[in-house]
Amino acid sequence: MEDNEIMMASEPVAAYAPTMFDTVIRYLHSSHMPIETKRAVYLQLQAEVADENLGYMKRRLKEFAGLKSGWDGEDAQPLLPETVAFVEKLLRSCNSLELADWALFPNVNGTFLLQRKDAAISIGSKEYSYFAEAKNKTIGRDHQPLSLESVISTIETINRYA
């Protein structure tokens, strides 16, 4: 085996921290391995990074659930148990690749913010709102009825077009 080849195995191909993702991609582009091998390594790495991100969001959700009034040092509201339960169900219902580019934050008004570079979804106890910059146009809606199906559909739409 040459130095620039990666051996394929039944175990994870790579266990790189997400910060190493770009370095590995540059290496894959510059190497002389067969395109099929590059594709397999890329897909495995993408899945590992996405799994790590989803796991991180699930761990953080547990921390957020324990926030008390004034958690921001001012007047922030605690997160409502039903909102925490909804986001918990959402994270269980999405596959890791759907949420690979997203991050989860508590809002000071007791809601959650699911955010990525070009989009945000605010999740309350009975409704949600979203916006995204998509191909030179802004899309979004306020005060949409909250349902698991509608939020997942919104995530999928944003992932596809934004």
How does this structure look, described?
The structure is a single chain. By secondary structure, this protein is of the alpha+beta class. It is 42% helix and 19% strand. The protein has four helices and five strands, in the order αααβββββα. The chain has helices at residues 21-30, 35-65, 81-93, 148-161, and strands at residues 103-106, 112-116, 119-123, 127-134, 137-145. A five-stranded antiparallel beta sheet has the order 1-2-3-4-5. A hairpin with a 3-residue loop joins strand 3 (119-123) and strand 4 (127-134). The radius of gyration is 19 Å and the shape is globular. Residues 1-19 have low confidence and may be disordered.
Give the SSE map.
Blueprint: H1 21-30, H2 35-65, H3 81-93, E1 103-106, E2 112-116, E3 119-123, E4 127-134, E5 137-145, H4 148-161
Antiparallel strand pairs: 1-2, 2-3, 3-4, 4-5
Helix pairs in contact: 1-2, 2-3
Throw out a few tags for this protein:
single chain; 162 residues; alpha+beta; 5-stranded antiparallel beta sheet; 4 helices; 5 strands; 42% helix
In short:
By secondary structure, the protein is of the alpha+beta class.
How many strand elements?
Answer: 5
Mean pLDDT: 82
Name the overall outline: globular
Strand content: 15-25%
Structural class: alpha+beta
Tally the helices.
Answer: 4
Q: What distance lies between the first and last C-alpha atoms, to the nearest angstrom? A: 41 Å
Largest sheet, if any? 5 strands, antiparallel
How large, in whole angstroms, is the Cα Rg?
19 Å
Secondary-structure element pattern, one letter each:
HHHEEEEEH
- Helix-residue proportion: 40-55%
